Amino acid sequence: MKVTIKDIAKLCNVSVTTVSRVINDKTNNIGANTVVRVKEAINRTGYKPNSIARSMVTGKSHIIGLVVPDVSNPFFSELSKGIEDYMNDLEYGVLLCNTDSSFEKEERYIDLLRCKVVDGIIFTTQNNYESPKYFIDMLQKRYPTVLIERYIEGAEGVPGVYVDNLGGAEKICNFIVEKGHKVIACITGSMNTTNTILRLQGYKNALAMACIGIDENLIIEGNYHYDSGYECMNELLRRHGRKLDAVFVCNDLMAYGAYKALQEAGIKVPDDMSIAGFDNTTFLDVFEPRITTVHLPVHKIGVKAAEMLMAIINNEKLECIKYDFKLGIVDKGSVGTKVK
User: Fold this and answer.
1) DSSP string across 79-117
2) How far does Cα 14 stand from its chain's mean position?
3) What's the whole-model pTM score?
4) Which of 180, 215, 314, 325 is deepest in the core (most CB within 10 A)?
5) How far is residue 173's CA from residue 17's CA, in Å, rounded to a whole number?
6) Distance CA 143, CA 67 (A)
7) 220 — phi, psi (to 5°)?
8) Residue 159, preceding bond cis, omega within 30 degrees?
9) Model confidence over 39-60: pLDDT tens digits?
């Protein structure tokens, strides 16, 4: 038989209002012994408060929205897990919305989440620099929002969690250069995203510092999916053949697609060609050697975003409005030393 709030009130010999106030942490005028007695009764009976009634009292739904462009990408899967782990400890639910990198779906999901009165939204938009109308509306109404890994024009005051994409790309490309490689290609992500622009700039900076000329014909645009890495690598091989020393790929998912293309072409990694990625995902660890890559603390990024959103929801002062993670390299053996 389901336990009700009336059962708890009767068991503790208090009013339903008193039980409700204990549940919602509004205990200013309630005796400490009564609070303890009610909480013990709730724990003993396994009573679960009605979430709708509770939200009417507290003004909070205890649910947040999470909007990501591609949940099949291991980066976003791990990111979602970090957010869910943190929110679960606070007894918050997370509504996951996958946009398939569609601006139209993103707008619909944002509208849906706000209509469903979630307490706040964490999202990684596909938009770059431009501020869509629905986002401007969120800003004007001071809706609790945290961005992850994408900068938006006009959203400079919006809290966000970021990684050092420029510095990370410079480090991994410097590593490739230090191994003696000079003909280094780059497979980028979609050029309408800020992290792609920064990673490409890091690649160019590293080559410039090594006095290696930038050949635009060695740069090819992908879309952060496995298939595009495969297709882009085949195109690079068609253009340059075995003249390539190495390739820097702007995420691991594409890097493993490129790896597959090299295998099919009979090109050994790293003996014949070196390859490096970005993210340090566990995707397709069956490859040997595994991809040398830039490590992103993805789970921690999710936790930090959730922590920031909860501070906003609870009207707490944020330690910082922008949180940046510094990145290091994980050498897994796919970048070899160039044989002279």
Assistant:
1) HHHHHHHHHHHTT-EEEEEE-TT-HHHHHHHHHHHHHTT
2) 46
3) 0.81
4) 325
5) 64
6) 15
7) -135, 140
8) no
9) 888 888 888 766 555 554 555 7
